[in-house]
Amino acid sequence: MAESTVKLYVLPGSHPCDAVEAALVLKGIAYRRVDLLPIVPVLAGPFLYGGGTVPGMRIGRERVVGSRAIMRRLDALAAEPPLLPAPGDPAREQVLEAERWGDEVLQAVPRRLIDAAFLRDPASIEGYAGDAKLPVPRPVLRASLPLTARAMALKNRASDSSARADLLALPGLLDRVDGWIGEGLLGGARPNAADLQIGGAIRLLASIGDVAPLLAGRLCARLAGYFPPLAGSVPAGALPAAWLAPVAGALLSDGASSGG
User: Fold this and answer.
1) Nearest residue to 166 via CA among 208, 226, 197, 216
2) Which domain holds residue 15?
3) How many CB atoms neighbour CB 246 within 10 A?
4) Residue 57 contacts residue 50 (beta carbons within 8 Å)
5) What is the domain count for the chain?
6) Which of 123, 107, 147, 150 is nearest to 235 (CA)?
7) What is the pLDDT along the chain (260 residues), one digit of tens a residue?
8) Sheet holding 62-65, edge to edge
9) Which of 15, 45, 77 is the last residue of a domain?
10) Are strands 32-35 and 56-59 parallel, antiparallel or unpaired?
11) CATH number for 67
């Protein structure tokens, strides 16, 4: 398939976009990536690829929106290597359920946490753009970062209260991923669709300096290895220590209980 035939529309640093891009690379499907500014999907996405969010894809005149829909379409475009177990394999429905959970439950957590961090350290947003080809000069981009941080938080419904709730819920979410890895559903030599869906979220969490220690020693941290290193990071100290203390305390308590 010609490279110009497949276009992937992304926001730099978006973990669902990274999941789809990793799947394209895994399957060896040539594509052209189109980097968008945060407000563009809402304004122009319906005209560009048929939706107001990312990732979006155009295959010739066909339009596909959303990471799970795109994953299914990629399996139809290139059967090998498959992103799902074969039909009839009991693991197929389990992988689909894990992928759904990663999309509908886990996906928003790192997004809200990083938005809360960006509000306090908007300059760190630039690092996540990496080598993206954006339609504005970097000095203009830098000047707009505080406004961008506020717009992203508003769009993603990120707030201090949501971030604190997400931090408290995070250990339980990570336990679930660790359980799937322990069962052999995730974390294999070749990633499946759920590995990529969840792994992108884990990698983004690991880029937040205050959150990364919560992943230390966990099985789920290995899922980030399906991706290249993330260009950006938020230095530790962006999130208030008072938000992190209850989570760290709970982890220490769990560790003591399991060890005793």
Assistant:
1) 208
2) 7-77
3) 12
4) no
5) 2
6) 123
7) 444 589 999 999 999 999 999 999 999 999 999 999 887 888 888 988 989 899 999 999 999 999 999 999 999 999 999 999 999 999 999 999 999 999 999 999 999 999 999 999 999 999 998 888 888 888 988 999 999 999 999 999 999 999 999 999 999 999 999 999 999 999 999 999 999 999 999 999 999 999 999 999 999 999 999 999 999 999 999 999 999 998 876 665 564 444 43
8) 32-35, 6-10, 56-59, 62-65
9) 77
10) unpaired
11) 3.40.30.10
Q: Per the structure block, which two tokens stand in for 5? A: 């035939």
pTM across the whole model: 0.92
Closest by alpha carbon to 70, among 98, 36, 31, 39?
A: 31
205: left (phi over 0), alpha (psi -120 to 50) or beta: alpha
Structure tokens belonging to residue 59: 């295959």
The H or E element spanning position 9 is strand 6-10
φ and ψ of 202, to 5 deg: -65, -45
Alpha-carbon distance of 32 to 119, in angstroms, equals 31
